[in-house]
Amino acid sequence: MKKCGSSAPALQRGLNVLELLAEQESEMGLKTISERLNIPVPSLWRIMGVLKENGYVILDPEKKTYRPGFKFLYLGNLVLNTMGFRSQARKYLKQLVDRTGETAELSARVKDQLILIEQVEGPDAVRLFSRVGSAYPYFHATAPGKVYLAHLEPEKRKSVMKRMGLPKITVQTIVSLDVLENELKEVLKLGFAFDREEMRSGVCRIAAPVYNHTGKVAACLGIAAPAFRIHEEDYLRLGNMVKKASLELSAELREKKTTDWLPPEIFQ
Fold this sequence. Notes:
Layout lengths: L8 H15 L4 E2 H8 L3 H13 L3 E4 L4 E4 L2 H11 L2 H17 L2 E8 L2 E8 L14 E2 L6 H8 L3 H11 L12 H14 L2 E4 L6 E9 L5 E10 L8 H22 L12
Antiparallel strand pairs: 1-3, 2-3, 4-5, 4-9, 5-6, 7-8, 8-9
Helix pairs in contact: 1-3, 5-9, 6-8
């Protein structure tokens, strides 16, 4: 969360409020928000009034607490629906669900985070679900993140990992740069990446790169499944299925020269 040192302090304060509310599992009162963000109550009251009037926050009149409003769903869908790339990818996500029986995901890098931008749920009674728009900040602990890291130049990758670190998220998370480097070599060799409960206990992911017509990684196509359904001997078979779908989507992007999802330079 940024400090209010910008040239538009009221706007920055409003953004800080929205980020704070989005991070909380429960609603927050005016006094709590004021204390957390060090914003005087009179100023905060005016900010909350504007946010409420425009649908960005919802006020519970009885409890006098605030929560994020539905305007974010509207704006988020507007952004996602402007990506022709998203609609192009959906048929390949459905194919992956049909072929693997698992939930299929499309994720992309936005600055230093991975964002889930589309998903098709698997048919099994026990299946995984993540909200579209969810962010995954740890690249070393998830299959799509490893795909992006594998496509960096070695020196750039070392610089990025030094800045981002290798925090231990689960008991399976890779925390050694040497071990990670060896795995990233395999990612380039195989054409897909996987993680075994490294980001979330009980969850495995397999992902492969989708390239745009310039040859850069535009996104990652993959599957997510409960760990008990994917065993070590399944990774190669499922990984090749994911890679096949990602290569087909990449070929379509090259043919159509899709330009509405061109990523900025990786990890600026």
